[in-house]
Amino acid sequence: MPSRQKLIFAIVVLLIAMVTGAGALWLTRVGPGGSGEALIGGPFALTDQNGKRVTDQDFRGKYMLIFFGFTYCPDVCPSELQVMTAALDQLGPAGDKIQPVFITIDPERDTPDAMKLYVANFHPRMVGLTGSPDDIAAVAKAYRVYYAKAKASEGAAPGDYLMDHSTILYLMGPDGRFVKHFTYGTDVKTLTDGLRGVVQ
Ligand code: NI
């Protein structure tokens, strides 16, 4: 090929690469629904309620239904975990494709033992995950979860505090990618139908 043709060829190849790259980047960033939710989730390394180190890879092949919270939560967490449990029960055998996961945002108090006692109140297959403060910060960041220690009430003991936290329920696919979310307050029937629509 003469050098001029070579140059034009190279420019065309470069342009195609740029356009394709930009398109792929746009799709990843915006996601099919235009919501940016394709960016939710990612790798994590945490400790389960039996003290075993687990990563997101251990859950491949199953849907993960993930809620972030803390065992001392007076109302939001227990009621959401009850709704998750009831929905999975309603799904029957189809529910077996879904792994319910509770991730603490209060690693200071939520040790594996504390998580074990707590998750036993909910679905029998529920996994409770904790970790170091850094582990938890990393997974919360990946899932865009906000959490912070609430201002302690006057005269409260040092270990006596509440946590503010996001209350979104996430459904991740068997490949680990974000599928959909449910907002706090979604009732059992709506959640059951929403899950059935995906896993069946
Ligand atoms: Ni809570």
Report on the structure:
By secondary structure, the chain is an alpha/beta fold. It has one domain: 3-Layer(aba) Sandwich (Glutaredoxin). It has helices at 3-30, 76-91, 112-119, 133-142, 188-199; strands spanning 45-47, 53-55, 63-69, 98-104, 127-129, 147-149, 163-165, 169-172, 178-182. The strands form 3 sheets. Strands 5-4-3-8-9 form a 5-stranded mixed beta sheet. A two-stranded antiparallel ribbon has the order 1-2. A two-stranded antiparallel ribbon has the order 6-7. β8 and β9 form a beta hairpin. The protein binds nickel (II) ion.
Helix and strand composition category: alpha/beta
Top CATH class: Alpha Beta
Name the overall outline.
globular
Corresponding CATH superfamily: Glutaredoxin
Bound molecules: nickel (II) ion
Count of separate DSSP helical elements:
5
Q: Within the largest sheet, what's the order of strands? A: 5-4-3-8-9
Question: How many separate domains make up the residues?
Answer: 1
Average pLDDT, rounded to a whole number, is 88
Q: How is the main sheet built?
A: 5 strands, mixed
Name given to the CATH architecture: 3-Layer(aba) Sandwich
Strand runs, count = 9
Question: What fold name stands as the CATH topology?
Answer: Glutaredoxin
Distance between the ends: 56 Å
- DSSP strand content: 15-25%
Enumerate the spans where pLDDT stays under 50 for 5 or more consecutive residues.
25-34
What's the short story on this structure?
It contains five helices and nine strands; from the N terminus they run αβββαβαβαββββα. The strands form three sheets. Strands 5-4-3-8-9 form a five-stranded mixed beta sheet. Strands 1-2 form a two-stranded antiparallel sheet. A two-stranded antiparallel ribbon has the order 6-7. Helices cover 37% and strands 19% of the residues.
